[in-house]
Structures are given as C-alpha cells and as structure tokens.
Design brief:
The chain is α/β, with parallel strands linked by helices. The protein folds into three domains: about 90 residues, Urease, subunit C, domain 1 (Roll), CATH 2.30.40; about 220 residues, Alpha-Beta Barrel (TIM Barrel); about 100 residues, no CATH class. The protein has 18 helices and 21 strands. Helix 4 packs across helix 5.
C-alpha cells in the first residue's frame, strides 16, 4: 500500500467528541488508513497541516437539495462549508414517486415549484429518481428519505380527507419500493398539505414498512408554536407505535409569544430517551426560518391542490373569510404574520416568476407601503402571480432557545437549505453558513458548544442517528470523507442581504479520498453519489 494523501501534524477531531490530538491522517484508495512512514512514496501528496483541524466530512441532517441537484448538481453552498453528505427528502417533500395520473403528477411538480423549478421529471418511481440523481454526479453525497407528502399526492392527490384502505395500501407499497431502492426512512411535514390532512393513525398505517427495516421516521412536526409540546409528543408516539427511531426536524419554539419555551419540548424528549426510545432532533443556528409564503394561510386553502388555492385567492368572498379567520385566530394553526410580530418581520426571499424579482429581499410591510395596499392583499396577489411559488423568511425565534436546543445532547445540525437553483439564487443565509457559523462560535469560545462537541454533532453523532457505519469518524478503514479547516479563520459570511457569500476558513474537502476543495479553492463539484441504505 502507498499512501495517496497525508495530512501531517494536524489537530485531529475524530467525530466522537474525544479530546483533540495532534497527529497525521492518511488516505489510500479512498479510505482512511493508519499513518505509516514506510507507506509514504513519491506519489504521496503531503499537506503540512500544522494549525489546521482535520475532521470527518460534515453531514447535513436536513436538506431539500433533492429538488435542485438534478438540475444544479454543483452545490457550492455545501462543500464550501465542509459538508460532504446531505440528508434529503425532508418535511414530507420528495420528487418521487410520480403518479401515472396526470393531475397528481402535475400537482407534485406545482406544489414545490419554489424549491426546484428546473427538474426534467424523467423518472416515475423513487428508485428511478435515485438513479437519475446518481447520474448527475452531485457535488456531495446524498442520503435519501421517502416523503410522506409525495406518497399521499401519488395515491390521492391533495384532498383534505382521510385516506381509504386502498389508498393506504398504495402508499405502503410505494414506501416499500422506496425503502428497497435505498431510502433510509420516511419523513413527514405535518404543517404542509397534504401531510397536514393526515392523522396519526394514517401515518402509522403507511409507515408500517419502517418497522422491520429499523428505518428512520423524521418529522416536521404539526406545530412549532403554542402547541409545540403536543406536536413533539405526537412524533414520539408515532415512533413508539412503529418501533423505530425518531428525528424531529429543525426543533424550535416559533413565535414571539413562545420565546423561552424550548425547555418544555426538551423535557419531553429527555423523558422519551430515558424510557429507552431513540429520539433525536436537528437545529440550525439562526433566529429566522424560511418556507413557502403559502404557509401564512390556513391549510384548508390548499384542499384540492395549488390550482385550487390560486383560484380561491381570486375570490372576494374567500379573501374576506381569510381576513376574518386570520384576525380571529384558528385553533392549531400557527399564523406566521402574528408569530413573527407583524409583516415587517416577513421577508420575501425568492420568487419563481422572474417578473416579480422586485419583491425579493423586501419585507411584506415595506412592499405594501410602497404600493399603497393592505399587506394581506399584497400576499394574495403575489401568490396568484407567482403561482404559489414564493418563498419567505420569518424572523420569529429566540436566540437563547436556539442555543439551548443546539447544546442538548440529542441535537444534530441541519441547514434546512432549499431553493439552490443556481450559485446566485436568493436563499436563507443558513444555506451557505450553518456549519461554518457553529464552528466559528465554537472555535472562538462563543458557545454553546466547544469544538469537539460541535464536530461530533456534525459527524459521528449524526452518522449514528442515521445508521451510517462507514463514515462520520476518523478511523482506519472508513471512507475518506474529510474536511480540514483553520479554526482561527472559520466563519460564515452569508447574510440576509447577501446570502450567497461563501464561508471562510475551509482549506481542504475530500470525498472518497478525492479533493473537492484544495488549498481553499474549489477543484471538483462532481464527486458525490447517492448512498443507498443497505437492505
């Protein structure tokens, strides 16, 4: 054996939270190997790593890159931070299966046009989608989840009603196909139609195939505001009924009135873990979230699909009803315009209709004032013109809550990135900054984590959550997905005004022993592959 790459004199973080140690990290044949001076030859690339941290490549627990990678596989936003693997198919959204029923297939395309408008839709099953994704050679590795919302859309469209036994059987069959094709579990998004229309019993019935495979159940829970604790309980109970692991997506206490309440949710998670249940969650280090602008409106508006939503918004009677409901409050519905403190805290992130670019980067309040219209009317009109494809950013979380969640032993890191349709697409800054921001805080001693803890949450702990055994740690025999960064320089640079500014401090990124970033420069954006879960 001849060593291909040798990081010499590095500060090594093994991904397990162990104290850092100084030493060498060697790579041969795409794998980490024991450093051996006898195996260093003229073909060995030696990197003097004094002053650099070498760690396992980071794993993003929550991404929506499956909607963009088939058309834009370059994913500079991720590899520039040292991310070598993304978990996709979150919040119930996945680009497959595609129903043979034309209107259902069209609905799948339309309902997520905001986060992936350029796909060619050349697949039908989940397995054929993974084949397509693998063929484009994305910039980083992909761990896919099956999306409950996609399963329900294929089986019954966007109807707000309980699934029939036949429809449940179809969803179960499609989930089995996805799991057999390599999905690592199933996700739900219970604030998003059609997932919002399903009750707990339906989700358990559809997810039965997770049990025998010990696959993962992930959930964007039903409420992240006033009913946060009940929603966390529901996720835990679904996992218990299925006998499988539970990953709660981007845990937060959303809404100004709910600041300071994250501890109540963490207590529920602690109790479940103490009882032996495998419950984890992910966090992003920002006090603003991002999702579809349609989420400022109640779920009933989308009964039947996005075309029905657009048609309803043209009706004066429907607008009057919405105005009344939003003013009076709807039980179980988190009104984001109220939760964030007003329309001045709702920012338009991106639009699909390029004629509406004037709205990007502006708050709803500012746009309404400039156009001399009521903010709600502006939202209605914008959604009609943009065919419900608008994405917003909502400033509604408490920094102390976020940091408390991130510090919890069960917390991992997920960016919740979406909409990376190009290197210049307007996105939430978490897309380009999540991992570098947490590492920068840790390296500078700004809390809530030290560097070993931060790296563990991005690597070994996440690999364990997912059930990955061949990466996520620095140990001989494991795949050489590695990152080397300068702890004195690591930081995020993306902002809400300039969200695509690249992070600083990442010097080298390897996927399978090949350089994606070398000396701080991008040298390859096509080294990733789909990591299919072993049967």
């Amino acid at each position: 054996m001849v060593i291909d790459i040798l990081f010499r004199g590095a500060t090594i973080h093994d991904g397990l939270g162990s104290p850092a140690r100084r030493g060498d990290v060697a790579v041969a044949g795409g794998r980490i190997v024991a450093p051996d001076t006898d195996a260093v030859g003229p073909g060995t690339r030696t990197i003097e790593a004094d002053g650099l941290v070498v760690a396992p490549g980071f794993i993003d627990l929550h991404s929506h890159a499956d909607w963009t990678l088939p058309a834009h596989p370059g994913a500079l936003n991720s590899i520039s931070q040292g991310v070598t693997t993304d978990v996709v198919g979150n919040c119930g959204f996945a680009p497959a299966p595609v129903s043979p029923v034309g209107e259902r297939a069209a609905e799948l395309r339309l309902q997520t046009a905001a986060i992936g408008p350029n796909l060619d839709w050349s697949w039908s099953t989940f397995g054929s989608f993974l084949d397509r994704l693998d063929a484009v050679r994305p910039a980083h590795n992909i761990i896919p989840l099956a999306g409950f919302g996609a399963l329900r859309t294929a089986a019954m469209g966007m109807d707000d009603r309980p699934a029939t036994p036949a429809e449940i059987a179809q969803m179960r069959a499609d989930l089995d196909e996805a799991l057999d094709a390599g999905a690592w579990g199933m996700s739900t998004g219970l604030v998003y139609p059609p997932g919002a229309y399903a009750d707990r019993a339906e989700i358990i019935a559809v997810g039965e195939g997770l049990r025998a495979r010990d696959a993962l159940y992930t959930s964007h829970i039903r409420n992240e505001g006033a009913d946060l604790v009940a929603a966390v309980d529901e996720a835990i109970e679904i996992g218990a009924a299925l006998g499988t692991r539970v990953e709660i997506s981007h845990l937060k206490s959303a809404g100004i009135r709910n600041h300071g309440r994250i501890g109540l949710a963490l207590e529920r998670i602690d109790a479940a873990r103490a009882a032996g249940q495998r419950v984890t969650f992910d966090v992003y280090p920002y006090s603003a979230g991002s999702t579809f602008l349609t989420q400022v409106l109640p779920p009933w508006l989308q009964d039947g699909g996005q075309e029905e939503l657009i048609a309803r918004l043209r009706s004066a009677d429907v607008r009057a009803r919405l105005r009344h409901e939003l003013a009076a409050g709807i039980r179980g519905f988190a009104n984001y315009s109220v939760a964030s403190g007003g329309w001045h805290n709702i920012l338009i992130a991106s639009v699909v209709n390029q004629r509406l670019r004037w709205a990007e980067g502006q708050t709803v309040a500012a746009l309404a004032t400039a156009r001399a219209v009521d903010p709600l009317d502006l939202v209605f009109d914008l959604l009609i013109e943009d065919r419900a494809g608008t994405v917003m950013i909502m400033f509604m979380m408490d920094r102390a809550d976020m940091r408390a969640a991130l510090a919890h032993p069960a917390a991992g890191v997920g960016s919740d990135l979406l909409g990376v349709t190009s290197d210049t697409a307007r996105v939430h800054p978490r897309t380009y900054g999540t991992f570098a921001r947490i590492l920068g805080w840790a390296a500078r001693g700004e809390g809530p984590l030290d560097l070993a803890q931060a790296i563990r949450k991005m690597t070994g702990q996440t690999a364990r959550t997912l059930g990955i055994t061949d990466r996520g740690r620095i140990a001989p025999g494991l795949v050489a997905d590695l990152v080397a960064f300068d702890p004195a320089r690591i930081r995020d640079r993306s902002t809400y005004a300039e969200p695509t500014r690249l992070a600083e401090g990442v010097e080298h990124v390897l996927l399978g022993g090949r350089f994606a970033i070398d000396g701080g420069q991008v040298v390859a954006r096509n080294l990733g592959r789909v990591l299919r879960r072993p049967r």
